Amino acid sequence: MIKLREIKKRNYKKIKHLFLRNKLKITDKINWINLWKNPIIQKSKNKTLGYVIENKNKIVGHIGLFPTEYRFKNKKLNCQVLHGWVIDKAYRNFSISLMNKFFSKNKSDFYLSTTTNKNAGKIMEALGWKKINIKGLSQTSIIILNEKNFLRRIFFNKKILYNEFTIFMLGKILGILFKKNLNKWKNYQSDPCIISYNKFDNKINNFWEKYKRENYSKILIKKNLQWLNWLLGNYLLKKRAKVFVIQENGNIYGYCIYITSKKNKINYAQILDIAVLKSHQKKKISLLRKCINEANKNDCAFFEFRNTYYKNLELLRDFKPININLSNNYFYFKPMIKNNNNIFNFENWHLSSLDGDIALNY
After folding, report:
1. What pLDDT sits at residue 97?
2. What is the rounded CA–CA span in Å between residue 271 and residue 248?
3. Residues forming beta bridges with residue 69, ordered by sequence position
4. Angle, vertex CA 327, rays to CA 324 and CA 328, nearest 5
5. Can you tell me the distance from the alpha carbon of 173 to that of 261, in angstroms, rounded to the nearest whole number?
6. Mean pLDDT per 10-residue run, the chain (362 residues)?
7. HEC profile of the chain
8. I need a labelling partner for 350 at 20 to 30 A (CA). Which of 3, 76, 103, 330 fits?
9. Residue 311: what pLDDT?
10. Predicted local distance difference test score (pLDDT) of residue 207
């Protein structure tokens, strides 16, 4: 008998099998358990974190959610983030029922999806979701740090067979063709004001309050101390996430967070978020350079900046990155507030890899 019910913490293994059957990646079990520790969930009477479709004790469909809070001017916006919407092929006629269940039980000001594929996007648009068309969101900027490992990563992703001689020769050619570009980031002098700061404390919290006031007219996720420690604390403990700050006279004026990942034994680094007060905008490039240098020390094949607006990507222009248009990098939202046109204009969004479920997937 087919039934639709709420997710339970103990369902991870069965849901993982569902993802694997559909050739999709699921967040690891530590991040899965961490969803229940979300500080907003802890304070809420509603502990629902999604729904599953079950048939004869087998989970054949899943839609996950978790709450976040945003601010626009003086208005608090409650958001539910959609993640992991997947259904076995034989049961896809239940897709809409699963989505409707998602909407019916969770009253929010808007819903957000940040890892949407093209096919899911078409269905979501039919259900009233809107694509966030901001210049930069569909692009990525990559700085190659190790030519050979970069090539290995590309060949692995494209499932191209190769041998080490091929990698050696192509690496040499790549090094010659892009010699100036590959080393451009090294030409910038280090800034003594930029230091490693791998913790979230009251200084970060004070910075965040100032940043929020400066970006009063933006739709801005609430990045307070509790929330940052919940979302990224495990990555910091494992030394996968790194935080660098601009610090002067004991005060923080900006930060950059990046994370290192490994795929097929190849390390790479990606920026999660960068935020700097208006008074210190000129130090943004030095902040990025510090992160790139650290990634290089950690033997990363490349350094990547994505899920941001074009103005941020332009910061890397002098480092001569490889710029790529992404075919599957869709951000969607569904507003639930009546007369919301003045809130959800595209120019009001202020997004990064800390929005939605992106950080769960590293």
Report:
1. 87
2. 23
3. 78
4. 120
5. 26
6. 91 95 90 92 87 94 94 92 92 88 80 87 89 86 85 68 69 67 70 91 94 94 92 91 95 95 89 95 92 92 90 84 81 84 86 90 78
7. CEEEEECCHHHHHHHHHHHHHCCCCCCCHHHHHHHCCCHHHHHCCCCCCEEEEEECCEEEEEEEEEEEEEEECCEEEEEEEEEEEEECHHHHHHHHHHHHHHHHCCCCCEEEEEEECHHHHHHHHHCCCEECCCCCCCEEEEEECCHHHHHHHHHHHCCCCCCHHHHHHHHHHHHHHCHHHHHHHHHCCCCCCEEECCCCCHHHHHHHHHHHHHCCCCEEECCCHHHHHHHHHHHHHCCCEEEEEEEECCEEEEEEEEEEEEECCEEEEEEEEEEECHHHHHHHHHHHHHHHHHHHHCCCCEEEEECCCHHHHHCCHHHCCEEEECCCCEEEEEECCCCCCCCCCHHHECCCCCCCCHHHHC
8. 103
9. 85
10. 96
pLDDT of residue 359: 86
Tokens of 237: 């403990």
Looking at the chain, how many residues does it have?
362
Strands 302-306 and 139-144: antiparallel
* Beta-bridge partner residues of 247: 252
| Entry pTM | 0.89
C-alpha–C-alpha distance, residues 81 and 202, integer Å? 27
CB 357 within 8 A of CB 123: no
Structural contact between residues 254 and 278, judged by C-beta atoms closer than 8 angstroms: no
Q: Would you state the structure tokens that stand for residue 225, as one six-digit string?
A: 């101390």
- Order the strands of the 322-325 sheet from edge to edge: 194-196, 241-248, 251-263, 266-276, 302-306, 139-144, 322-325
pLDDT for 54: 94
Which pLDDT score, from 0 to 100, does residue 209 have? 94
